[in-house]
Design brief:
Largest sheet: none
Number of helices: 2
Order of helices and strands: HH
Structural class: mainly alpha
Distance between the termini: 92 Å
Strand content: under 5%
Helix content: 25-40%
Length: 122
C-alpha cells in the first residue's frame, strides 16, 4: 500500500505536482433485481467491466543540447589541452614554489648570520 501511495503522489522523493490529485470516480451503485439474480441477467451478452482512467503526467519536453555545469569537462576531446582552470592552478603552484625557495634561502642566510654572531661573541 505504501508503494501505491507513493506512486499516486508522484514518487517517493520530491514527487507530487502543483495540481491536487483527484481520486478516481466511484462507479454508480447498481440496483439489484428483485429476484436476487445478477444485475446483468437481462443484458443477454457478456459482461464488460470498464476500469477507471490511469493518470498520466504530461511529458517533459526539453529544447536545445544537453548542458553541463560550468567547470565540468564532458570528457577528453580531440584538440583540448589543459583547461583554463588547470593552467591557473599550475601557474599558482609555480609561484608558490618560487616563494618557498626564496624563503628557504632567507632562512639559511639568517641561520648563517646567527652562527657568525655566536662565533664572534665567544
Amino acid at each position: 500500500l505504501e508503494g501505491a501511495e507513493a506512486a499516486m503522489s508522484g514518487g517517493r522523493m520530491g514527487g507530487g505536482s502543483s495540481r491536487r490529485s483527484v481520486p478516481p470516480p466511484r462507479p454508480a451503485p447498481r440496483s439489484m433485481p428483485s429476484d436476487g439474480g445478477s444485475p446483468f441477467a437481462g443484458a443477454g451478452g457478456p459482461s464488460v467491466v470498464v476500469a477507471p482512467p490511469i493518470f498520466m503526467p504530461p511529458p517533459i519536453i526539453l529544447f536545445g543540447p544537453p548542458m553541463l555545469p560550468l567547470g565540468m569537462n564532458s570528457g577528453p576531446s580531440q584538440n583540448s589541452g589543459p583547461s583554463q582552470q588547470d593552467q591557473i592552478t599550475k601557474d599558482q603552484q609555480n609561484r608558490d614554489e618560487r616563494v618557498m625557495d626564496q624563503q628557504k634561502m632567507q632562512i639559511e642566510q639568517m641561520q648563517k648570520e646567527i652562527q657568525d654572531l655566536k662565533a664572534k661573541k665567544q
